[in-house]
Amino acid sequence: MVPEQGRVVLCIAGKEKGSFYVVTGSEAGFVFLADGKHRTLDKPKRKNIRHIRLTDTVWDIAGLTDRMLRRQLCEYTQGGN
After folding, report:
1. Model confidence, pTM
2. Considering only CA atoms, which of 27, 28, 22 is closest in space to residue 59?
3. How far is residue 35 from each of residues 8, 43, 59, measured CA to CA in Å?
4. pLDDT score recorded for residue 81
5. CATH number of the domain to which 56 belongs
6. Are the C-beta atoms of 64 and 41 separated by less than 8 Å?
7. Residues 15-53: pLDDT tens digits?
8. Could you give the number of structural domains in the chain?
9. Residue 74, domain member (yes or no)
10. CB-based burial, 42-64: b 16+ in 10 Å, e otherwise
11. For residues 75 and 12, what is the distance between their CA atoms, to the nearest angstrom?
C-alpha cells in the first residue's frame, strides 16, 4: 500500500530509525519524507516503503511550513502516539 500525502509515518530502518516523518510524495516503491528540521519540505528524504510504518494520522500539508511541521510532529510524538 502506498501512503498518501500527509500521512505520518515511523521510520523502522536506517539512520532515521525511531523518528516520525510526514509523507510529501511517492514514486514506484519509495516515499518522500520531511520532518521540517533535518529534512525540509523543499528537500525531502527518499525512503523505501518497506522501511516505514504507517500511523493512523493524516494531516493536510497544503500551505504547511517547516516550522509548523516541526511543531505538529513535536506535539504528535509527545502526545504518546
Report:
1. 0.91
2. 22
3. 10, 10, 13
4. 55
5. 2.30.30.30
6. yes
7. 999 999 999 999 999 999 999 999 999 999 999 999 999
8. 1
9. yes
10. eebbebebeebeeeeeebebeeb
11. 20
Name the average pLDDT for the chain.
Answer: 94
- Going by C-alpha positions, the residue among 80, 78, 76, 79 that lies closest to residue 6 is 76
Query: What is the distance between the alpha carbons of residues 67 and 63, in angstroms, rounded to a whole number?
Result: 12
Residue 2 lies in a domain: no
Bridge partners of residue 46, in order along the sequence? 32
Domain limits at 53? Answer: 7-78
The H or E element that residue 56 is part of is strand 52-58
Whether 1 maps to a domain, the answer reads no
Whether residue 56 lies inside any domain: the answer is yes
